[in-house]
């Protein structure tokens, strides 16, 4: 396996250009099968190295495969009656990208040149770190300013958070026993009737969960009610 | 134009933090000395050339650059090492390859939207674009009239200043696609020379002029060919 400097590639197009260049391939006649293989090898390498493969690379892999498939099929024909090369869009994208990549190299050269010029006021940023002139800052300060500052310091102190914790004296086990007791006397209970006896929202919720538990374990069953929005609970052991 | 204005123009350029446009110089002079003063932008330009010639003859450490639609004083590249030693870290950092690529596309295609940019680069460019916005090298100029009205990005005056361009028209022309294909190797060699050559050699041989450095590098492409 050859070594690849990973940071060298700015994206899938950059990587493709690298392959084309390295193998001295003709950009107008890209061997899609070969290049797809290379591309996939690189993707697998990224995966082996546990690097997160960017979506852009996966998209390109999919595009390559799509082109590969299209190459096998009879080619589409444009309005002039000429065959459309499935690779045309990719070639166009590669060339355009290459054009700007080249320009960026030109600009990098310009950058190096310009960095040797220094403008006036270049040190300004450093001077910001210098201590302020306290003499001028403390002019016209009165005792009231101090009081105000002290008060502000006191007021701005973050308040200690106080949490109220209420203990709910109801448990799922309790409510399961309660339901079992209810069903001992009767064949079935209406769910709504059962809920009417309870005032706490939490108790209703817990009872509901207890009911589901019992349905799961098969000790009770549920049956549809004639009135909508309600159902009957019946004990299975009691028949 | 009165020759006294040579010093006036020099003073105005010297006192300005950012590149000062010739129009501002003319306006200042006309405002004070009457609008019948026969000074033009071309006069200012000529004066700048004369000043630069004089600085060169006197061996001054600075020169006037014609960048970002205006004129600005700058120290010469020969002193970059010493001046750079005291300036902040921030000004020393170079742009990343991703940033340069993005800037090149924005510069040539402006105004353009993020999707247009990303379709050329083939990668998500959120981060790069934000960095460039932060550095004030690109800015938002408005919204496109297309569906979704995406934001339009353009380069700034700071961009011109950073790359030493007088206006956006001074950018080197992007080569046509056919041309690119022709001399692929030439470009690669040029890039290598730029990267290794300019960076290292120029730093090692600080005292040598740019011209000498260039000449010295000329034979390299041939060497590379023989190796390959």
> What percentage of residues of chain B falls in helices of 4 or more residues?
55-70%
Number of strands of chain A: 4
Compute the CA-based radius of gyration of chain A: 38 Å
Low-confidence stretches of chain A: 126-132
Strand order of the largest sheet of chain A: 2-4-3
Assembly type of the shown chains? heterodimer
Shape of chain A: flat
Please explain how this structure is put together:
The complex is a heterodimer of chains A (239) and B (228). Chain A is mostly helical and 239 residues long. Chain A has ten helices and four strands, in the order H-H-H-H-E-H-H-H-H-E-H-H-E-E. In chain A, strands 2-4-3 form a three-stranded antiparallel beta sheet. In chain A, strand 3 (220-224) and strand 4 (231-235) form a beta hairpin. By secondary structure, chain B is mainly α. Helices cover 58% and strands 10% of the residues of chain B. In chain B, the strands form two sheets. In chain B, strands 1-2 form a two-stranded antiparallel ribbon. In chain B, a hairpin with a 2-residue loop joins strand 1 and strand 2. The N and C termini of chain B lie far apart (60 Å). Classes of the chains: A mainly alpha (239), B mainly alpha (228). Strand 1 (118-119) of chain A pairs antiparallel with strand 2 of chain B.
Quick recap:
The complex is a heterodimer of chains A (239) and B (228). Chain A is mostly helical and 239 residues long. Helix content of chain A is 55%, strand content 6%.
What are the main properties of this structure?
heterodimer, A: 239 residues, mainly alpha, Arc Repressor Mutant, subunit A, 2 domains, 3-stranded antiparallel β-sheet, 55% helix, B: 228 residues, 3 domains, two-stranded antiparallel sheet, 4 strands, disordered C terminus
């Amino acid at each position: 396996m050859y070594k690849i400097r990973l940071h060298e590639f700015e994206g899938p197009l950059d990587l493709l250009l690298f392959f084309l260049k390295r193998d001295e391939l003709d950009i107008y006649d890209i061997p899609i099968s070969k290049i797809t293989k290379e591309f996939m090898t690189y993707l697998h390498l990224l995966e082996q190295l546990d690097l997160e493969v960017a979506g852009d690379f996966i998209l390109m892999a999919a595009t390559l495969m799509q082109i590969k498939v299209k190459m096998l099929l009879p080619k589409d024909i444009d309005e002039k009656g000429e065959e459309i090369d499935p690779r045309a869009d990719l070639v166009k994208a590669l060339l355009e990208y290459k054009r700007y990549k080249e320009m960026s190299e030109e600009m990098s050269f310009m950058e190096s040149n310009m960095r040797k010029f220094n403008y006036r006021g270049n040190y300004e940023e450093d001077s910001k770190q210098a201590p302020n002139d306290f003499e001028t800052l403390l002019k016209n300060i009165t005792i009231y300013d101090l009081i105000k500052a002290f008060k502000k310091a006191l007021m701005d102190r973050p308040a200690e958070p106080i949490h109220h914790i209420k203990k709910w004296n109801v448990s799922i086990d309790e409510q399961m026993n309660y339901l079992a007791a209810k069903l001992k006397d009767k064949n079935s209970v209406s769910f709504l009737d059962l809920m009417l006896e309870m005032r706490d929202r939490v108790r209703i919720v817990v009872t509901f969960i207890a009911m589901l538990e019992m349905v799961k374990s098969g000790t009770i069953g549920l049956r549809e009610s004639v009135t909508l929005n309600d159902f009957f609970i019946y004990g299975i052991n009691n028949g | 134009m009165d020759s006294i204005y040579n010093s006036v123009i020099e003073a105005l350029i010297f006192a300005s933090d950012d590149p000062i446009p010739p129009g501002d110089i003319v306006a200042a002079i006309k405002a004070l000395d009457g609008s019948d003063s026969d000074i033009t932008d071309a006069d200012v330009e000529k004066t700048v050339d004369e000043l630069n010639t004089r600085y060169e003859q006197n061996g001054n450490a600075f020169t006037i650059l014609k960048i970002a639609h205006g004129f600005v004083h700058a120290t010469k590249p020969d002193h970059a090492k010493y001046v750079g030693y005291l300036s902040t870290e921030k000004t020393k950092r170079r742009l990343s390859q991703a940033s340069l690529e993005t800037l090149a596309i924005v510069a040539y295609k402006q105004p353009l939207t993020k999707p247009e940019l990303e379709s050329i680069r083939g990668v998500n460019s959120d981060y790069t674009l934000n960095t460039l916005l932060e550095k004030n090298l690109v800015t938002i100029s408005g919204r496109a009239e297309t569906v979704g009205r995406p934001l339009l990005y353009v380069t700034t005056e700071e961009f011109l200043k950073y790359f030493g361009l007088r206006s956006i028209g001074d950018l080197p022309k992007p080569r046509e696609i056919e041309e690119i294909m022709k001399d692929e190797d030439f470009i690669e060699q040029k890039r290598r020379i730029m990267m290794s050559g300019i960076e290292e050699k120029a730093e090692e041989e600080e005292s040598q002029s740019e011209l000498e450095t260039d000449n010295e590098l000329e034979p390299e492409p041939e060497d590379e060919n023989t190796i390959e």
